[in-house]
Amino acid sequence: MTNLSSTNRSLAQPLCVTTLPDPNAKIPACFAAKSSAHNADEVDAALRLLLVPGVGSARLRRLREAFGSARASFNAPLESFAQALRCSIEEAADVLAQASRADVPRELAACASANARIIALQDDDYPQLLAATGDPPELLIVRGALDATPELAVAIVGSRRASLYGCLQATRLATDLAQRGVTIVSGGARGIDAQAHRGAMRAGGRTIAVLATGLNHPYPREHDELFDAIVQAGGATITEQPSFVTPRADLFPRRNRIVAALSLAVVVVEAATRSGALLTARIAVDDLSRDAGCLPGPVDSPSSAGCHRAIREGWARLITNADDVCEMLADARMLIHGAAERAEQRAQEGSTVSASAGRSSSRRAPRPTSRANESAQSTLAEPVIASSPDALEVLAMIRRLQGAGLDELERELEWSVSRLASATMELEVQGRIGRRRDGAFLARGA
Predict the structure, then answer these.
(1) pLDDT at site 281
(2) DSSP code for 26
(3) How far apart are CA 290 and CA 263, in angstroms?
(4) Contact partners, residue 157, CB within 8 Å, separation at least 6
């Protein structure tokens, strides 16, 4: 064991004071609604570390695993701190010195000014699908409404230099899916991303924009009004970056991973052969065991060449309309069930290091490997999540009528089309109803 100088130990000392707020003090409003005073203290410690350049979620996670919490890491021997960070003692001392000077009040003030809240990985409010991945952000800064339980969500991504054709297709697809109750997730960028967000809002639906930058530097700047509109329409903007982080090329792959992780499937509309949108789809398929689809474009268009290649290679499905996406969601509903089970298991285990390890060891949800496999199809035909009251009422009506289309259901139930579409979409995803060739719904199972 190396002898630690009093100078080195003193570097950590200010944190032992500044990160221990009065337990009776009011919790800052920007912390997650369910945060305790202890958790607010933990978020303060995590923020201090994340505000140090070079200390990201991965290194912070190593500190949590080594010492049980970010807060406890500040009181650890400097040599142990360095071992956890996998750096020299001198570098570790510098990290502690910078963390002690980190302007956390400035960050909290920026969040409060933007009416944003901070959600930690340990919070009940943290999205379950994102937590179940191998490398979730330790902290999220969120404006608007974000559910912890898995949403019926699809990512629509594509070219920033979108053609008129691409913009029209992205808007059409997002609008049709939003009318069926699907949340649209995208990256808030120019082109296809922006049209996907707007299409969802046009249908009165919900959309989530995942940003690569901090709240004070939204990118692109001209989308300020779009991001505000998303929040006002009941959606959310999300970032893992502190508020004063400006655009950098290395931040966008991390953003793309969050987009894929929050979604049950990824759809690419217009992408060249070398495209960040295609990388998002590959993350979904290769890293997260989720489905991806591509919407084809004109056969001679370089802007769609990446989509055509992905379809030809077979790792992406051919997508032409919302019904095609619904088929992917029907296959993905076991992912919802798996994430819910893991969240329940974490709640039972508590916020411990072992629970954190459990998250990473069970990062992949089960999924059938072949559509031709009859047992897999049988599994998909059994509902695995509870249906809403609206869905159950629609299911009962379909059974009573021995099959019915949307028009007939609308007449019998006297519901709006959007309400009916949301309920039937839920039942389709759960595998409780199917469709005849004429488009009418039929109940499955008992």
Answers:
(1) 96
(2) P
(3) 9
(4) 186, 187, 192, 193, 196, 256, 259, 266, 267, 268, 269, 271, 276, 277, 280, 281
Reduced to 3 states, what is the DSSP secondary structure of residue 210?
strand
> Tokens 């200390």, residue?
55
Which pLDDT band holds residue 81 (cuts at 50, 70, 90)? very high
Please report, to the nearest 10 degrees, the dihedral formed by the alpha carbons of residues 340, 183, 324, 431 taken in order. Answer: 40
Chain-wide mean pLDDT for the chain?
81
CA atoms lying within 13 Å on the CB side of residue 439: 6
Q: How confident is the model at residue 378 (pLDDT cuts 50, 70, 90)?
A: very low
Class in CATH terms, 151-331: alpha beta
Q: Which residues of 159-180 are buried (b: 16+ CB within 10 A; e: fewer)?
A: bbebbebbbebbbbbbbbbbbb
- Report pTM: 0.71
Least confident of 8-12, 210-214, 253-257: 8-12
Instruction: Say if residues 60 and 73 touch (Cβ distance below 8 Å).
Output: no
Cα–Cα–Cα angle for 324, 327, 333, rounded to 5 degrees: 145
Domain range list for the chain: 6-112, 151-331, 386-443
Residues 6+ apart with CB under 8 A from 147: 127
Backbone angles phi, psi at 117, to 5 degrees: -130, 155
Q: What is the mean pLDDT of residues 9-23?
A: 34
- Copy the structure tokens of residue 143: 């404006």
Torsion of CA 237, 239, 244, 249, to 10 degrees: -120
CATH of domain 386-443: 1.10.10.10
* Widest CA span in the chain: 81
Neighbours of 195 (CB within 10 A): 26
24-63 confidence digits (pLDDT tens)? 444 455 555 444 455 788 889 999 999 998 898 889 999 9
H or E stretch covering 312: helix 305-313
Average pLDDT (433-443) is: 80
- Return the structure tokens found at 369: 């490997």
